Amino acid sequence: MCCSLALHPDKVQVATGQVGKDPFICIWDTFAMQTVSILRDVHSHGVACLAFDSDGQRLVSVGLDAKNTLCVWDWRRGRVLATATGHSDRIFDVAWDPIQTSRLVSCGVKHIKFWTLCGNALTPKRGVFGKTGDLQTILCVSTAKEELTYSGALNGDVYVWKGFSLVRTVAAAHGVSI
C-alpha cells in the first residue's frame, strides 16, 4: 500500500513510499510506467513522507518507525547519504530549501525542525516559537526564498519562519485545522 508520494522536479518521475513490515521506496517513470529505482533497508513499518530536492538529485524520506528516521538518498545510485533520528513524535511533512540546497525542514506533532546536511551528517535545530505563536502540531510545510518557511498548524494558523525562528502568525487563516 502506498502512503507517501513526491513528484520529481522534471514532472516525469515520481517517488512512492509503502506501508508494511519491510517497506521500500519506488521511483517511477510516469510516461513509461516503469520502475527506475527501488530504495530499501532503512525504514520499518512504512514511509511517512518524501521530498525531492530542487534539482532532483536527492530524495529525503521519513519512516514510520519509533524514531521517525530521516534518510537522504542519492536515489539514482540507490545510496544512503545520511540518516538521523527525526523526532520522538510523528513527522507529517518534509521539504527541501530551494535555495540553500543543504537545508531541509520537517514538521509534526508539536514540533518543527530545520536540518542541515553536511557530508553524511544531518544536524537538526528545533524551531523557536518564542512569543509569536503557540507550540503546536505542525501538519504541513513549504519552503521559499530568503530563508522563509511556511507551515500550517493544527489550529488553522499559518506560521512564517525566518531561519529557525517564528516571525509571524497568520491567525486562524483557515478558521479550523489545515
UniProtKB/TrEMBL annotation:
GO terms for cellular component: microtubule. Residues 3-175 form the EML-like first beta-propeller domain. Keywords: Repeat, WD repeat. The keyword Repeat applies. InterPro entries: Beta-prop_EML_1st, WD40/YVTN_repeat-like_dom_sf, WD40_repeat_dom_sf, WD40_rpt, WD_repeat_EMAP. The keyword Amino-acid biosynthesis does not apply. Signal peptide: none annotated. One of its GO terms (molecular function) is microtubule binding. PANTHER family: HELP DOMAIN-CONTAINING PROTEIN, WD-40 REPEAT PROTEIN. This is Echinoderm microtubule-associated protein-like 6. It comes from Dissostichus eleginoides (Patagonian toothfish).
